[in-house]
Q: What sequence folds into this?
């Protein structure tokens, strides 16, 4: 009964936070000049293009699978390959709603460093793939049915988007809260501290590799992470698991096979693991 009450309290806290944060961000998105951002993506200055890609990823968060149509559209618009890859890596992991929720539950310091580290590494890896010549492994794909929508401020539209986001993301948050409550109630603290705590750096690459087939959404991982860290698990492997499971998934890899040749798909998987591993290891220094 005690664990059930704990789950209800956590679910209520997450519900109120998610509703408030989602509505605020959807309102703010109405003031963002998306057309200008897209122009900067195609500009001659690569630094501005990278910053625009990261900002676009931040204000238009997608799960790893729903990023693919946007990637195809950017490639068809002849946006620089490295900048497209920056967006591909950044979009699933830089969700402003989830990052804000992370700040509330795990602390603003964690959320701040998470945002900075993932953005910098996504930019570095994306442009490195371009330097290594992986652009030649992009297939010539033609996409139909994709329409860009202009964003203008509307409180009604913001409410609609918040409710739509609730339908798609909220169930995963509740699932995460449920799993977190089970871990809190049934898994001994000593077990987590012994096997997953301390400075066991080797847990980070393992978590980064394991995260991809698990495909645990960021929204599910946030409440689970809170409990794991509370029970004594080191922050670094938690972050590595979170980033790899959000950054790539088996469904996304299957979709990428339709637009990328095998060498680029393998490079993408390796890059996500690298992104998650280095991000996790950097959290040992915080």
A:
């Amino acid at each position: 009964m005690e664990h059930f009450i704990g789950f209800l309290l956590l679910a209520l806290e997450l519900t109120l936070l998610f509703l408030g944060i989602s509505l605020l961000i959807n309102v703010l998105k109405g003031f963002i000049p998306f057309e200008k951002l897209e122009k900067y993506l195609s500009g001659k200055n690569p630094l501005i293009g990278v910053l625009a890609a990261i900002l676009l990823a931040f204000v238009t968060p997608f799960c790893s699978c729903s990023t693919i149509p946007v990637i195809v559209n950017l490639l068809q618009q002849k946006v620089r390959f490295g900048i497209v890859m920056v967006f591909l890596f950044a979009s699933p992991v830089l969700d402003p709603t989830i990052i804000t929720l992370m700040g509330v539950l795990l602390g603003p310091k964690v959320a701040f460093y998470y945002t900075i580290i993932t953005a910098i590494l996504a930019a570095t890896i994306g442009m490195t793939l371009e330097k290594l010549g992986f652009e030649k492994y992009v297939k010539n794909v033609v996409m139909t049915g994709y329409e860009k929508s202009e964003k203008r401020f509307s409180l009604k539209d913001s409410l609609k988007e918040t409710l739509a986001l609730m339908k798609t993301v909220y169930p995963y948050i509740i699932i995460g809260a449920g799993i977190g409550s089970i871990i809190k109630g049934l898994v001994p603290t000593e077990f987590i501290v012994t096997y997953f705590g301390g400075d066991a750096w080797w847990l980070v690459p393992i978590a980064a590799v394991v995260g991809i087939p698990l495909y645990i959404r960021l929204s599910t991982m946030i409440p689970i992470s809170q409990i794991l860290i509370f029970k004594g698990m080191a922050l670094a492997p938690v972050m590595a698991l979170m980033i790899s499971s959000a950054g790539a998934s088996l469904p996304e890899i299957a979709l990428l096979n339709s637009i990328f040749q095998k060498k680029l798909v393998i490079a993408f998987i390796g890059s996500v693991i690298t992104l998650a591993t280095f991000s996790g290891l950097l959290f040992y220094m915080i």
